[in-house]
Amino acid sequence: MSHKNVTGDTTTPDELDAFRELQRLAYRAAEDVAASLEPGVTEREAARRIREHLESHGVRDWFHTPFAWFGDRTAFRNLRVPLQFFPTRRRLEKGMPFILDCAPVRNGYVADIGYSGVLGRSPLHDRLVDDLGAHRDLIVERVRAGDTLQDVYRAVDDLIRAQGYDNRHRVYPGRVIAHQVGRVRSRLPRAIVAGFGVRSLQTLFGDLLVERLHHRSPLWADGDISAHPATPGLWAVEPHIGFRDMGAKFEEILVVTEDDAFWLDDDLPHVRHRTPAAVPLPA
Asked: Residue 158 — left, alpha, or beta (φ > 0 → left; ψ -120 to 50 → alpha)?
């Protein structure tokens, strides 16, 4: 979320390597914690485990502290105010889906990831995760083609409906599907306010001001402020789909240059996900 990204400068290969390393670390933390989950663990405990895992690997700051959602909360049902997004005492049960989400900052670099899983086996959950792959392909192809962010958002909506799901990222504050990320450079002390790091918030607010001067926004939603092609830089993208009381998403960094777009890393859990046998959606 450095101002250099919103003004069109490119990110160096060394910087991309640092973002990639941190993103992989965040996903490893989510995978390790997911493997440790058992019936009875609470969302708060799962979030605490992720935080401790990342802090043991040098993380000292956060864009936002870890989230965990269990059961119908993975589909963001009945979440109407921001405080309801924070981890609760909801306990995990066998067969229940979960989403783990974290956004660590290390040495000024930012990652923001989302990991979807289920305690046990669920062919329906496998299908949701597999179907998210089509959104990953669509997003990079449409951004690469120079479509406006608003049009890409609407194309994602169309695909969600065609798959038989409903859009759950529209429940996020501002209906965002993505936001820009970059180096956090701030002289403020490290502190957390309402789950967000004050250094990262300072940078984000600065980017909002700069982008508004260019009639753009570092927040990607479906409103007219997103009726422009993706600004060169890094975007944390998180399509989130739901079917009844089950939700799934991924979140990872999309790199946008003046003439191209590509995912920062293709070696991530949802990319490696094995395509399951076709499972019909329940009537």
From this structure: alpha
DSSP secondary structure string for all residues of 170-212: GGSGGG-SEEEE------SPP-EETTEEHHHHHHHHHHHHHHH
- Which one-letter DSSP state was computed for residue 106? E
Give, in order, the Cα–Cα distances in Å from 58 to each of 107, 133, 168: 9, 31, 32
pLDDT at res. 3: 34
The pLDDT of residue 190 is 80
| β-bridge pairing 261-263 and 252-256 | antiparallel
User: What tens digit of pLDDT does each residue of 186-218 get?
Assistant: 777 787 776 777 676 666 655 555 555 455 688
Q: Name the amino acid, one letter, at 26.
A: A
Q: What angle do CA 264, 266, 269 make, to 5 degrees?
A: 115
Q: How far apart are alpha carbons 8 and 3 in whole angstroms? A: 9
User: Could you tell me the two tokens for 132?
Assistant: 């998210």
List the structure tokens of 35.
Answer: 């493997």
Q: Is residue 61 within 8 Å of 15, Cβ to Cβ? A: no
Question: What residues contact residue 261 under an 8 Å CB cut-off, 6+ apart?
Answer: 140, 143, 144, 230, 254, 255
- Per DSSP, helices labelled H in the chain are 3-6, 13-36, 43-55, 123-144, 149-163, 198-213, 269-272
